[in-house]
Predict the structure.
Amino acid sequence: MRIAVVGAGVTGLVVARELLRRGHKVTLIERDIVGGLAAGFPYPGNPNVYLERFYHHIFRSDTLVQQLVWEAGLERNLIWRPTLSGVIASGKPWPMRGPVDLLRFRPVGTLADRLRLGWALFRLRRVAQWQELDGVTCREFFARHGAQVGYERLWLPLLFAKFARYGEEASAAFLWGRIVPRSTSRRWGQECLGYLRGGFQRLFQHLADELRQAGCQVIVGQNVTAVVPGSPCRIELQGHCVECDRIVWTASLGLLANLVGKSQAAAVTGNLPQHPYVAATVLILAMRRSQSPFYWLNNIDRDITFGAVIEHTHLADPADYGGEHILYVVNYHEIGDKRFAVGSPEELLKYHEPSLRRIFPGFDHRDISRMFLCQAPFASPVYTKGFGKKMPAYRGLLPGIDICNMQQVYPFDRNMNHCVQNALTYVHTCYDAPVSA
């Protein structure tokens, strides 16, 4: 069968590999670079090192990514390091390593409020099946366990930082999917995270090279201009087209609706509830000095302009970046938010610098040796209450077109391991088991 996979992110790469292994003729199409949202770029002065555009790490539980690293022969480059995470509140960072730090976290409220919040989180971890929480918002879950104050002061600001104005609509199952899997990376209050030295882009390039060697046509740097469902299907690119028996669409449904004809677009927009997406804007600062002992800081302070700040070189080695310390300044926001319609990293730094100075007293503009600006308009779906019942099926939306994208990793966040799992599940469901077309 001739199959075209649209999108060479983690999902698309694994789907293409698995379909090739089953004897299909595969074409992989990517408008940007191999790796998609997880891709990196060569670091100036060190072409053998790639820097993630949108920061990545893996947990101990991310065994599927670890397996890909081993299969690529890169296992010696997979490093594990203890890291410190925290929360910005009341104008300063607070460590958040576990229950003891939560009890010390005064911005949540009284000691009784903190205890109730800890109890609610304990009850969340005790839920065996995420489906029990799919029809419950985070607010409803915390209220059920008497932790309304903790929700209002901690979790609601975090959800707004993640999903913009849709934060109140977030499903408690999503929170379960964020907290429960990562608990395996924490021992005695200490989290240990993994990173592929030199960047995960090395893994993605290996996968792409492996696909080419196996006979896959990999088309990079060309936009899809139209998609024609049917039997056969057709994908129109800049200057030529690809005809195939099936299409595997790994990008957003909104983009697909814009590329099919009007009558077919109605199937995309009418047969399924449309889930909003949020965009991501990341300012990357290469600095001469470390800014704090924290690897990851989420923000709940309304006076701070960013949602999170990650000092990547507490996980990766600064020597790989010429001794520079890499700081990611992160915002998730609504698509079209004018605050982030900036043309240069300098403009965004001007917006964030007062907040950076407040959180990091030693922050000095003169310590910045280089800056990068990375943006993605469809960074994450908003995982709302009841999302599990609204997820698109792999097949049946449009003739000849399958869907395998970020919406289907729910209730888990769309990290690399969950994207690999989704790809494997799709291929098994649609090609290893009898299904209807």
